[in-house]
Amino acid sequence: MKKEEIIQQLKHNHQTFAKKLESLGKEDFTRIPGPKWTAGQQLDHILKSVVPTAKIFHTAPTVLEEKFGLAENPSRTYQKLVDDYLKVLENLRDFVLPERFVPTKITIENRGQTISELLAAIETLNQGLHLFDESVLDSHRIVHPAMGKLTLREMLYFTIYHVTHHDRQILENLENYPA
């Protein structure tokens, strides 16, 4: 995917997620689905994931290079990145989510504000992405907590997919843990 398509997908997927959350009644939004996260917690987790990603795209490539180095391999395709992420999830039995990504309780009263913050973070991410050359997306890397070293393009692919993954989890949780 080229930059413009990435920007459109980030926007579309997160707006779709926001609409899904806005459509949930209080009971479904706050329902604790067994050992799973509530819809509100899913929202908070996505927000906590997008904010640092947005900051990356407001960091000079030279700073990213100094901190994380340059990519040693070409960027994977979107589908390959998703497939690899799903394999990582299958094998992460002992993985502990870093505290900064662990969601807090989001009440129905906080839903609108949190959704606004998420969509603003996506807008901030997209604004920063406009400043990066296509080549930098493939030459510079960062570290993902579960997947290790990713190129900037791969991190964007992850962000596009991650929200849809949690969107599906909300539906599955509501189906598998009825009120």
List keywords for this structure.
4% strand, two-stranded antiparallel ribbon, 179 residues, mainly alpha, 2 strands, 8 helices
Report on this model:
The mean pLDDT is 95. With 179 residues, this protein is mostly helical. A hairpin with a 3-residue loop joins strand 1 and strand 2. The radius of gyration is 16 Å and the shape is globular. It has 8 helices and 2 strands. Strands 1-2 form a two-stranded antiparallel sheet.
Helix and strand topology:
Elements: H1 3-23, H2 26-30, H3 39-56, H4 61-68, H5 78-91, H6 108-129, H7 134-139, E1 141-144, E2 148-151, H8 152-176
Antiparallel strand pairs: 1-2
Helix content: 55-70%
Mean pLDDT: 95
Number of beta strands: 2
Show unreliable segments.
Answer: none
- The neighbouring-strand order within the major sheet is 1-2
State the end-to-end distance.
40 Å
Number of helices: 8
Q: State Rg.
A: 16 Å
The coarse silhouette is globular
Largest sheet: 2 strands, antiparallel
Question: Helices and strands, in N-to-C order?
Answer: HHHHHHHEEH
Classify the secondary structure makeup into a structural class. Answer: mainly alpha
Strand content: under 5%
In short, what is this structure?
By secondary structure, the chain is mostly helical. 66% of the residues lie in helices and 4% in strands.
